[in-house]
Amino acid sequence: DVKVTQSSRYLVKRTGEKVFLECVQDMDHENMFWYRQDPGLGLRLIYFSYDVKMKEKGDIPEGYSVSREKKERFSLILESASTNQTSMYLCASSPIRQGGLNEQFFGPGTRLTVL
Amino acid sequence: QQPVQSPQAVILREGEDAVINCSSSKALYSVHWYRQKHGEAPVFLMILLKGGEQKGHEKISASFNEKKQQSSLYLTASQLSYSGTYFCGTGGAGSSNDYKLSFGAGTTVTVRA
After folding, report:
1. Average pLDDT, stretch B87-99?
2. Please, which residues bridge with residue B70 across strands?
3. How far apart are alpha carbons B62 and B46 in whole angstroms?
4. Which residues of chain B lie closer than 8 angstroms to A100, CB-CB?
């Protein structure tokens, strides 16, 4: 079974702090994703990585950065946390397969509260 | 741009059927469907590809209308275990874009005994 793990289930930080969210997958997937999930808005893509050290901005990258130094690990960084970044953060990974059969496997999520 | 899902919520009794629609304003190459139970991660149900056939998962099936840029998810003879929020994720044609999805806001399904 594919396993995607995230470093924390719950996190409370103060405004202005630097926050690191870690995600690790164990199935050698090329693609990794960071989403935030807010009520009524569904899942919105923050950043996407298709290879080590490669990244692309998603729909809402402002205020976030990412790092992928190893294939299995994808980190989301909030350089200076703000209250509007309070949200559920979901990491996902997917393989690259011919024909687009590339389902995404999600981690359990990190609920971040910024005070 | 996010696809539009409808309805936002539906309440069913066990054994009833429901349809969830997912519409996009842009051409689609693929549509993914996921289900998320309360407090859990979204779980993959199925992918539909442009030019592909209708897919099924237990008594849940889906179709993909390329002309209308729309997919529909059919819950047949619903069971209590079908409760959750269903998300569609749409992907366009292209290289790296094949792997990025835009998700709808979700449809919350509640199945009651």
Report:
1. 72
2. B23, B65
3. 8
4. 29-30, 47, 49, 91, 98
**Beta bridge partner(s), residue A67:** A75
**Which residues share a beta bridge with B65?**
B70
Smallest Cβ–Cβ distance between A108 and the set B41, B44, B87 belongs to B41
Q: Which of residues 18-77 of A touch B (CB under 8 A)?
A: 31, 33, 35, 40-45, 48, 50, 56, 58-59
- Which tens digits make up the pLDDT trace of B78-89? 999 999 999 999
Distance from CA of A8 to the nearest CA of B (A): 14
Q: How far is CA A3 from the centre of its chain?
A: 14
Q: What percent of chain A has pLDDT over 70?
A: 95
A108 upstream amide cis, omega within 30 of 0: no
Tens digits of residue pLDDT in A8-47: 999 999 999 999 999 999 999 999 999 999 998 999 999 9
Cβ neighbours of residue B60 under 8 Å, at least 6 residues apart?
B45, B46, B73, B74, B75, B76, B82
Closest to A21 (Cα-Cα) out of A98, A88, A97? A88
User: Which of A100, A102, A107 faces B41 most closely, judged by CB atoms?
Assistant: A107
